[in-house]
Amino acid sequence: LRAEVIAAVEKAPDLTALDEVRVGALGKKGRVTALMKSLGGMDPETRKQAGQAMNRVKDAVAQAIEARRAALEAAELNARLARERVDVTLPVRPETAGTIHPISQTWDEVVAIFAQMGFAVAEGPDIEDDFHNFTALNFPPEHPAREMHDTFFLPERPDGTRHLLRTHTSPVQVRTMRGEAPPIRILVPGRTYRSDSDMTHTPMFHQFEGLVIDRTTHMGHLKGCLSEFVEAYFEVDSVPMRFRPSFFPFTEPSAEVDIGCSRQGGELRIGAGDDWLEILGCGMVHPNVLKACGLDPEVYQGFAFGMGLERIAMLKYGIPDLRTFFESDLRWLRHYGFAA
Ligand code: PHE
């Protein structure tokens, strides 16, 4: 029996089979166990001798099982190490890296260009009050110009005031003039909101605003500064500019600026040409705005301008629909070279 069981132990191909052999020999109904039980019916002398012999069998079987178990476990570990080996020399799987969005790209470029002209970046809150967004900017109460902006209003507060999502970056002019003394030279990039949506309007869009206040700042400075910007941004040597008289409550005189361009076979080229494109609004800061901000219009004067970030990005990259900026479509980003 001993030889038979030990042979079976040594032939067990894996741990499960080994356990079956163990149960078959040493388990409750195992063959070795059954043999031990037979001791009960023997006379004392025979039982003593047979008992010792049987214990030796039992120990030998148990030892053989332990040895086999250790060997099988070692073999299994080796097999697993071989299976789970990592080949560090394999080439890596291709990975798609994140890339910068055209809005962020344009934002950074514009900030960099104006920084070179000595403009500091200023920012203000997206949620504004009527004073900063309208009143201090010389919008008369109940004036239709307030409606022009398709304002998103927030629910009225307990104190009766009604906040709003800023409709332009101009409120930051007010915050800056009230907060620091001239000379002022700031660029204000930021999000703006108007209740409007079509090919060229989205409820949220970006503007950047320039403001320069000093004692002798005049329209020539405004023009020089804008042409410097347009040439740097569109990367062309010279761009014709046209100042068309316009109206904004917070500037006087006010102008809209067109830049020269040409269209050949549907392709838009910025620079000399026989066509014009409107790109921004600007003007000399209105004396009423200076006064509302605590500045004496007899001493200080300055200019301001505001433009749409998406608009100039659309012109540079030939993007026809404003809404696509906010759709997060990878195919679109790839098409315009903004993603790999
Ligand atoms: N805030 C104006 C707008 O959103 C643009 C502007 C800014 C015009 C500064 C003049 C001066 O339409």
From TrEMBL:
<dbReference type="GO" id="GO:0000287">
    <property type="term" value="F:magnesium ion binding"/>
</dbReference>
<dbReference type="GO" id="GO:0004826">
    <property type="term" value="F:phenylalanine-tRNA ligase activity"/>
</dbReference>
<keyword id="KW-0460">Magnesium</keyword>
<keyword id="KW-0067">ATP-binding</keyword>
<comment type="subunit">
    <text>Tetramer of two alpha and two beta subunits.</text>
</comment>
<keyword id="KW-0963">Cytoplasm</keyword>
<feature type="domain" description="Aminoacyl-transfer RNA synthetases class-II family profile">
    <location>
        <begin position="113"/>
        <end position="340"/>
    </location>
</feature>
<dbReference type="InterPro" id="IPR010978">
    <property type="entry name" value="tRNA-bd_arm"/>
</dbReference>
<dbReference type="InterPro" id="IPR004529">
    <property type="entry name" value="Phe-tRNA-synth_IIc_asu"/>
</dbReference>
<dbReference type="InterPro" id="IPR004188">
    <property type="entry name" value="Phe-tRNA_ligase_II_N"/>
</dbReference>
<dbReference type="Pfam" id="PF01409">
    <property type="entry name" value="tRNA-synt_2d"/>
</dbReference>
<dbReference type="GO" id="GO:0006432">
    <property type="term" value="P:phenylalanyl-tRNA aminoacylation"/>
</dbReference>
<dbReference type="InterPro" id="IPR045864">
    <property type="entry name" value="aa-tRNA-synth_II/BPL/LPL"/>
</dbReference>
<dbReference type="InterPro" id="IPR002319">
    <property type="entry name" value="Phenylalanyl-tRNA_Synthase"/>
</dbReference>
<keyword id="KW-0547">Nucleotide-binding</keyword>
<comment type="similarity">
    <text>Belongs to the class-II aminoacyl-tRNA synthetase family. Phe-tRNA synthetase alpha subunit type 1 subfamily.</text>
</comment>
<feature type="binding site">
    <location>
        <position position="252"/>
    </location>
    <ligand>
        <name>Mg(2+)</name>
    </ligand>
</feature>
<dbReference type="InterPro" id="IPR006195">
    <property type="entry name" value="aa-tRNA-synth_II"/>
</dbReference>
<protein>
    <recommendedName>
        <fullName>Phenylalanine--tRNA ligase alpha subunit</fullName>
        <ecNumber>6.1.1.20</ecNumber>
    </recommendedName>
</protein>
<keyword id="KW-0479">Metal-binding</keyword>
<dbReference type="GO" id="GO:0000049">
    <property type="term" value="F:tRNA binding"/>
</dbReference>
<dbReference type="GO" id="GO:0005524">
    <property type="term" value="F:ATP binding"/>
</dbReference>
<dbReference type="InterPro" id="IPR022911">
    <property type="entry name" value="Phe_tRNA_ligase_alpha1_bac"/>
</dbReference>
<dbReference type="Pfam" id="PF02912">
    <property type="entry name" value="Phe_tRNA-synt_N"/>
</dbReference>
<keyword id="KW-0030">Aminoacyl-tRNA synthetase</keyword>
<keyword id="KW-0648">Protein biosynthesis</keyword>
<dbReference type="GO" id="GO:0005737">
    <property type="term" value="C:cytoplasm"/>
</dbReference>
<keyword id="KW-0436">Ligase</keyword>
